Amino acid sequence: MRDSVTGILSRSPSTTVCALAAHALTMISDPSVVVLSGPKVAMVQLRIQESVADTVFNGGEVLVTETRLELNGVFGFGMVIGDQPEYATALAVLDALGRIDGPHRAYMTDAVADLARALTTKHQSEFAASNSTKVAFDTF
Amino acid sequence: MGYIAARGGTQAILNAELLVEYMRLHAASDPIGIDQIRDQMRAAVGRAMNEGALYAPNLAALALKQSEGDSIDASFLLRAYRSTLQRVMPTIPARGVDIRCQRRISASFKDIPGGQMLGPSTDYQIRMLNTLLMHESTADVQRILKEYDALIAQHADTDERAGYFPKVVDYMRAEQMVPFVRDDEGAEPFDITRTALTFPCSRSARLQSLAQADTGCLLTYAYSSVRGYGDAHPTLAELRFGALAIAVTHPLTGEPVCIGEIVVTECEIVSKAHSVAHNQERPYFQLGYGFTFGHSEVKAMSMGILDSVLSQAKRNGLSGESGPAANEEFVLLHSDGIEASGFTAHYKLPHYVTFEADLKVLERAVDHVESDALNPHAAHATTAKERL
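Structure tokens for the assembled complex are given below, as produced in the milestone run.
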């Protein structure tokens, strides 16, 4: 899931994702966007499956922004953590674009691959810092 | 005795609010930015979020600014804001094994698969005030960032799975140290925000309640059980802190949609095998689970200890007999900081009518005692009459 397209888009810089959506939108003819709802700030209830007895419980709420739209009659859904209306709408546009054939698909695939590489590098850097604190305790 | 509404004092109340703002700003220091609180007061932001039961770092920072750092008030503001928002859907259940760890330790085993990483921690420092922070400058910030970059260069890791580790409890299960227990509650967990708690409650209700409970309260109950008013002997099986990706279900395709990451703390507490568990075929260690938003290790551990204590008490029919922390109803009904502080604070509000009734009761009691003193034979007669 975290390596999926949404896993990459939702964890990349919002400005980059918004620019990606805006550019991809220019690659289809006569784009017509109808916003069905949002962007609205709402909550999702966080479900956790814990590790003692596999109990699923509600761990609290997470503030999100959600947009639902139609792009040339194709449904698009965008949701992102936090109060980020442009980001949510960009994700909804990209979601709809993913179900429309056209040259934008190849562009999006390449762009997502670039974002994935940048995300991996960022995570590896963060891990490298944590890895510097790896410890082997001796007992005596 | 019912409550009687009081009215009036509008201007005084408005002026009082102005004085609060004055107290915050009168020294003419620069107003604190929300981003400064969010980034530099991580512990306070995390606490406000997990006690307010709303993951929203910017709003938690705002709440802390508005409440002048009062953690309970900040979580109250978040919880109140939460009530104005629509809940659009639940997430797909997230699991701790998917946490991208920045910190991962175990107190049970020296060598765990993947190794232990201390991560961002002051656990091993002497608690001394760092007076250098009194005059922290931009140059100091740049120096720290430069040292961090050097650290990354020195410990670069190209593993794409870097940061993801197996769970210590899975290893313990494989070694038959802890039981394979599966909850039979079903997929839909209890929701304490929609249904009032009744006892005995389900484990999902308990965990939700503990996750949004007051940190200090959980710490007190857990400490009581560890220190002597109970029988808990906890050891930390694993504690991890890091980023957890969250997903929801796509409303059209039904496929998982990742919506980003949240910062969480998770732990499992292992406690000694109990001989009182006579109904078990094989002795095992007991486990407890802790989870919080943000970086809140003491709360997560307190939650894990209490979960373990309450599970054992329930399993062996010993609820409340192994100290107050083993009484599920007592623990869960008194650990919500917002409810507790709200109830306590409401005694500051006008209670003139109820107190007038108390005054009349006091007057009657005084009259009764004084009349007894003046006429002891009558008092004895009354007492004798009452006995009949």
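Chain A is about 40% helix and 30% strand. The two ends of chain A are 44 Å apart (CA to CA). Further analysis is deferred to the final report.
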